[in-house]
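Usage example:
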Amino acid sequence: MYFDYLNVLVFASVGLVFVFANLLIASVLRPKRLTDEGLDTYECGEETIGSAWVQFDIRYYTVALVYVVFAVEIAFLFPWALVLKDAMANTGAAAGLGIGYFALAEGFAFVAILFLGLVYVWCKGDLDWVLAYEGQRYQPKFADSRLERVSTVRDIEAEIEARAKAAKAPAPEPSAT
Amino acid sequence: MTNILFYVLAIVALLGAAGVVLAKSPMGSVVSLLGTFFALAVIYLLAGFQFLAGAQILVYAGAILVLFLFVIMLLNLGAMGSKFELSFAPLQSTRARIAGCIALALALVGLVAAQRASFAAVPERDASAPAIDSMEGLALELFGRYSLPFQATSLLLLVTMVGVIALAKRQRSGDEPAKGEERP
Amino acid sequence: MDKSLLSDVPQVAIWIARVVVIFGGLVTTAALMSLAERKVSAWMQYRYGPNRVGPFGLLQPLADGLKFLFKEELIPAGANKLLFRLAPAMAAIPSMMTIAVIPIGTLVIDGDTIPLSIAPGVDLGIMYMLALGGLAVYGAILGGWASNSKYSLMGGLRASAQMISYELSLILSILVAVVLSGSLDLTKIVEAQSHGFWNVFTPFGFVAFVLFTIASFAETNRHPFDFAECEPELVGGFHTEYSAMRFALFFLGEYCAMTVMACLNVTLFLGGPSLPFLENTPWWLGIPVFLLKAAFFLFLFIWVRWTLPRFRFDQLMRLGWKVALPIALANLLVAGAWVAFTTKGG
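Running the assembly step on the lines above writes:
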């Protein structure tokens, strides 16, 4: 087993050497003609105004927080997934312990409790990216989960046909008055 | 071989820890912390704790540190240097020195406790049962002897999730937003 | 005395050959993917695509690589130099390392079995992979932040938020395969499927397979989830400010990640190097079969890119958190219950 981890370590260093060798060769070969224009921050040709290191949206932070909680949960689910089959069959490492259904129930309870957390975040609206104030409280701005209907080729053809028909039809008589 | 690797990794971990404290920009601290986590994970691996190593990288380096990054960006700490610079200013304030001494004392207490525990009588184990350092052994302990703490963990995580959402999303007191206004 | 053909070859030589073959294969695949991307898109749009360098433009990746070497590199004056330099390596290296635990097949030479994999015996193969693969997020976020450009920062933030959102569904669908075979070792997961019954043939295996495929698109920042480099609004996303070799490294990382995801999909749900419904697949068929299956998923990445429009960011988050995550959680529990009630216990 250790030999395998050693393999990984050596493999990683091969990758490291590959990456840095490329960078080194490039740094020797490439030209260096530094100009002020070249060192500007790219903003589609406009003069850069201010730094990009500004305060950003809190929504990213909330997503990261929820992710951390679930990442911890998943770390605990790894042993559960690994051992479930053995525990049920009473074989392998679990032989003689007889914890099969107990382990299963524990996994269910663990996931169910955390699912409550997901439901809470969901109800609080933190899983919606865009919320608009609708009086009293914020509501998801795109409540409809489907995409808005997109015109198909057939729709467009039908519309062209209708227009052509309308153009062919005789213009209404100008009124005499 | 293992010893050499251990010392190298330990030095990397300590240098990373020093970098966390001394880096001038918070981003530098985060990158140093990443190095420390990585070195610690490999040390766990050397000690035979595979799951701990995996969880260390998956949870600490992969999730918690990303959260730190977002927090730093959220706090908007203003212009951060364009270079990786060290600043020894933290070492010169009295408060930092006191905090450092307390941390050192706690670390020593932990070390002594661990030393004592390793000499204490090890409870009798079934020799045929897998050791806790293997993943299967750990899982069976988790669902057998420690099932209650395991469930308590999930409750703790639930409380954490509710807590962070409640704290992060406190409605700002003041004017009512205009109808149709997007949430900041 | 009957001596094996391989007994005269030192183990180290076999080991080095394995590293060279797998690493070279990965990098070559990544290079060819950059060509395939342009060729397939040209084919789908009724164009020729690159066809000047070498026969059918096959040497184009080589020409690109040389060009990247000779291009001037610009680092914006306001950037954080150290992180700017470090970020491309942080994006490329974890993606390349994750291939180490994937069992591509076995070679049988004169009775000796050689697994074509760098580290076939890592007990926690999948966990190792996910842990390292998750580190690729730092390449995007640090690269975007260090550039000190608004486009880069937005791209990096979006990329990281998207990667962490879909990582949950990705891991949960992988755990279904773990539950079914009772091991975290990829070699054993393949063995469990080697009698012709792939994981994808079970209902929850199929759901997990679909979820994994969707999540792998999001994890690698590919269409229809490529918010990191959504050209109309963010120019180039987190690598807007990058040029020359460091720019190439971001792409190398992306293509390596795609290759690894394709291989992982094949390994977990499609039986790795085995054929369906056959009790035993002959060893010499294993490697070609594996490569063909992986090639299909690589083609799928390109196919989807030129077929589907890009999502909107709120749609992406909704799909990840409100659809994929609950389904993945429920699916894992169903798989667990099925295993529990069908396993004959003592």
